[in-house]
Amino acid sequence: MRRLNQRLNQLAENEKNKREETSRFLSMLGHELKTPLAVIRALLANKKITPAMIEMANKSISEIDDVVSTSQMAEKVESDTVQVNITQCDLNDMLESLTEKHHLQGSVKLSPHTSPTINSDLILLNIILSNLIENAAKYGAGDKPIEIELSDTEERDTVILSVANDVRNDNWPDPDRLFDKYHRDRYAHRVTGSGLGLYLVKGFSGLLGIDIEYQPTKTQAVFRLYIPKEFSAK
């Protein structure tokens, strides 16, 4: 009887957790999609559509797409259904492409490395780096460049990649909740987002054997990735 009660209590607890998870997800969707949908609705109501309006609509659609895509990726992490495909990755090329993708040329101070080729999952690594760079661009001080640096460890079997950005005023993130699912600090709500970016960074890093640390300085939020040059399945 005791085992049965324990089992029933566990099932009830699991069901409660699922309801809370669903509630957080729906709350995130309702909050984060409201602004881009309002922009699109306002533009559609305008009788004269200008190129600038079309650009605004496309930006809003991209924001909605990002929230949906990120949510789908988070579900794969949660259900342990992410596939890892190992190939050669050139970190310098990836970082240059990402700065172009996010239109950050001139806003990124990139310190390249002489031997940046590693064996890892190109798609997952690209998502990790993209989320870190996007996070720095969204929440950093706009008048200061994002600093990205590559270096070797003494053992030479790991590449260290750091992404640093100056912090606006007192808008420091909560270090204890940085990688929590759906967590967004109070200052983050001025831009659309899912609260899943750093959660995915943490999850995908674990799959690729990458250690990630948050190491802030007095003026900067700094994330460091310790990336193995050769992937080793756990």
UniProtKB/TrEMBL annotation:
UniProt entry keywords in alphabetical sequence: Kinase, Phosphoprotein, Transferase
Residue ranges of the region described as Disordered: 1-22
GO MF annotations, alphabetized: phosphorelay sensor kinase activity
Lineage: superkingdom: Bacteria
Gene3D superfamilies recorded: 1.10.287.130, Histidine kinase-like ATPase, C-terminal domain
InterPro entries: HATPase_C_sf, HATPase_dom, His_kinase_dom, HisK_dim/P_dom, HisK_dim/P_sf
Annotated TM spans: none
EC id: 2.7.13.3
Pfam families given in the database record: HATPase_c
Keyword Membrane on entry: no
Sequence ranges of Basic and acidic residues compositional bias: 13-22
Histidine kinase domain ranges (all copies): 28-231
Polar residues composition bias: residue spans: 1-12
UniProt protein name: histidine kinase
Organism: Candidatus Terasakiella magnetica
